Amino acid sequence: xxxxxxxxxxxxxxxxxxxxxxxxxxxxxxxxxxxxxxxxxxxxxxxxxxxxxxxxxxxxxxxxxxxxxxxxxxxxxxxxxxxxxxxxxxxxxxxxxxxxxxxxxxxxxxxxxxxxxxxxxxxxxxxxxxxxxxxxxxxxxxxxxxxxxxxxxxxxxxxxxxxxxxxxxxxxxxxxxxxxxxxxxxxxxxxxxxxxxxxxxxxxxxxxxxxxxxxxxxxxxxxxxxxxxxxxxxxxxxxxxxxxxxxxxxxxxxxxxxxxxxxxxxxxxxxxxxxxxxxxxxxxxxxxxxxxxxxxxxxxxxxxxxxxxxxxxxxxxxxxxxxxxxxxxx
Length: 330
Ligand SMILES: N[C@@H](CCC(=O)N[C@@H](CS)C(=O)NCC(=O)O)C(=O)O
Hints:
Layout: E1 50-55, H1 59-70, E2 77-82, H2 111-118, E3 130-133, E4 138-141, H3 144-153, H4 179-194, H5 196-201, H6 206-230, H7 242-261, H8 269-272, H9 274-285, H10 294-297, H11 301-311
Parallel strand pairs: 1-2
Antiparallel strand pairs: 1-3, 3-4
Helix pairs in contact: 1-3, 1-7, 4-6, 4-7, 6-9, 7-11
The structure holds glutathione.
């Protein structure tokens, strides 16, 4: 049984997401180094050298988990899973809901300990995902958009040929010929959708809420039209690219969590966006050479409903919707 929210704890500074004007502004990530295939690099790609710290709830961490599996990096990069409930002490290990009992590398119980090991003077937020170097004992990078790009290519020489970017039928997850289009889409999808749902959900004034929820739905309309016009299976053609991975982690949480918990309730993906809904179900349900079944395997609906409810310090988890995801064919 869940405990009622402690009203004192509700005011803990870790839960203060919005600035004084009611708007949530995501802070830039602090660790921005890159793993490289070059053996003389500061962070060379090696087997068993790196660990990826995540939880099942976070969409940014989810991106990195998807790419780790799509690329077949499971035996090369260790996965470390924490609980998906944000506590006053930040992300913790507690053995619940898929979390490991404690940090397998150092026996830590909190993610903050890992950040302080990397930098005792660290002052930012303790976010997932984190890519950790076990040899240098430091954080390589804590920015998901950069971690996924490293995963596309940096470890390719350690992988069978079929998993290398050069063998990817579309020319990679971030192919040369689509880079500009993907970057352009990333920019507005990040601001209005991936981060837009957070800006909507964490807003503490009506003005701040409206200034984010309206562009969010305008952008979903724009994506719907993009798919309708192109009639492609994925966002840019018939193979998965980075644009699909980045959008998936937000849309798979949309109807079950953001719609109710973050008040993104103007429309629902399943009833109001037929093309996006089809695209989402293909990624989730279809086990083909592109998806490799990875999207379903890395999706944990209960963590979205529970994690976001608790993040807003309200332990009541919404009852619906009736299905976490609709079947591919009715
Ligand atoms: N820019 C980061 C954002 C990561 C992020 O904000 N993660 C959230 C979880 S979804 C987090 O760890 N929040 C903890 C906190 O802010 O205290 C990325 O994309 O990697």
